[in-house]
Structure formats: C-alpha cells, structure tokens
Design a protein that fits this description.
Helix content is 25%, strand content 27%. It is α/β, with parallel strands linked by helices and 234 residues long. A hairpin with a 2-residue loop joins strand 10 and strand 11. The longest helix has 17 residues.
Length: 234
C-alpha cells in the first residue's frame, strides 16, 4: 500500500505549526501501519501528479490563505495545476482512497472542492477557536469500528472547537469545554472512499500520548480497507 503525506510547506506553512516535525512522526506511524510513505512538500504539484496506486492521503498542512504576522504571501499555483490536482483527487475518491486529515487540515486545501466535500466540517477563521494548549481529556464516543476497544485518554494539545458542519460526520472522540462537548475526531464514508479527521496533532507532544497513538493506529487500519463497500456491494 502506498501513502502520500501532504506536508505543510510553502503556502501551506504557518508560524504556529511545525508541520515537518509532525509529518515525520506521522510518516513513522503510517509506515508501521503497513504503508510505503512519501512525504510531499509541494502540495499542489503532488496532488496534480498523484499516482493511481496511492491508497492513503494524509493531509498535514495549513491554511494557504491565512494572514501571517510578517504579511508574507505565497504565489497561488497556475489554474492548470489546481485543475489537474482537483481532477486527480476526484479520481482517487471515485476509485476509493483513504484520507487522514490532521489538525490544521480542517483549514487547508481551500482550492479543492473534492476535499471540501470529503471533509464534512471546516475550521472557520474568526469563528472557530481553541482553548489554550495544555493537558486535556479526550472522550471516546459512539460505536464506530475505530472506537472499538479504545479508552478515554489525556493528551497535551490544542483542541479545535466550533467547526462549521457541512455534512454528516460520525464522531469518534470529543472534548469538553465549559460543560459542552465538541467533536475532535470523526469518520466519514463517501462512495468507495473513507476519511478520518483528527483535530489533535499541534506538535510532537501530541504523539507522546499512548491513547492518541492507539486512536491513530485504529484509524489507519480502517482507512486501509478501501475501496469501501458501497450499498450495492452489501
């Protein structure tokens, strides 16, 4: 099985997240799950040339349109590159692919309608937020196959809160703030493809949590089983 990790560099980088650090950790976890892993720094170009045998796409990249403290901006790729990348992503979703979207991925890949439809919910600037980074309790919820056998855990991380809900999501983990539960991890099936979004993963400390690692291992096992069966297959 072949996996590509889209690493937050270039216009997908930001001053608050060290994507190369977390992508390196994710590469190890994905390899342990049985995948051959490529880490791609040129996100748009890598999507445009996405091989047909890729079984897993990991999105660990930031918002390409977020303002930066120094006012720097990156050049948007030519329309032909974006069109080719979206078409390649559409083909992958049609044939069946697993997508693991991590942390800032909820605010990433805005130029790709295929990704927008796959994600199910979005981080919205000036609306979504997170409590201060720190030790936090994560609650496993629901009866999804990923949640089977997992237990609540603690993690040192940011907890993204108040996403815009765009479609049906199946929560797997939640956090609580001021007495209100918020989704942190969810799964989706669409056609023959599967997606897991994990709002955790701000930096390497997140992956020091045994509970978080167990959740990711279960997620990767579920994502590896694509193409997912459709209603006609059942």
């Amino acid at each position: 099985m072949r996996a590509v990790i889209l690493n937050g560099s270039g216009r997908y980088a930001d001053p608050w997240h060290h994507h190369s650090e977390t992508s390196a950790v994710l590469a190890e976890l994905v390899a342990e799950a049985g995948f051959t892993v490529d880490v791609a720094d040129e996100v748009d170009e890598s999507l445009a040339s996405l091989p047909d045998d890729v079984a897993l796409i990991v999105v660990n990249a930031g918002d390409p349109y977020a303002p930066t403290p120094d006012g720097a901006t990156d050049v948007v790729p030519e329309a032909s590159v974006l069109a080719a990348a979206n078409a390649a992503l559409e083909r992958a979703i049609d044939r069946g692919v697993g997508i693991l979207a991590v942390h800032t991925a909820a605010a990433s890949l805005h130029d790709y309608p295929a990704y927008e439809r796959a994600l199910g919910a979005r981080w919205i600037r000036d609306s979504s937020w997170h409590p201060p980074i720190g030790e936090a309790a994560v609650h496993i919820v629901g009866n999804h196959a990923i949640a089977d056998g997992l237990e609540d855990f603690t993690v040192f991380d940011e907890r993204y809160t108040d996403f815009r809900l765009d479609d049906v999501i199946e929560p797997i983990a939640e956090h609580e703030h001021d007495g209100v539960r918020h989704p942190l991890v969810w799964a989706r099936e669409f056609g023959r493809s599967r997606l897991v979004y994990d709002a955790l993963g701000h930096d390497g400390r997140s992956y020091g949590s045994a509970g978080h690692l167990a959740l990711l291992a279960a997620s990767l096992d579920w994502l590896a089983r694509v193409p997912a069966p459709t209603a006609n297959d059942r």
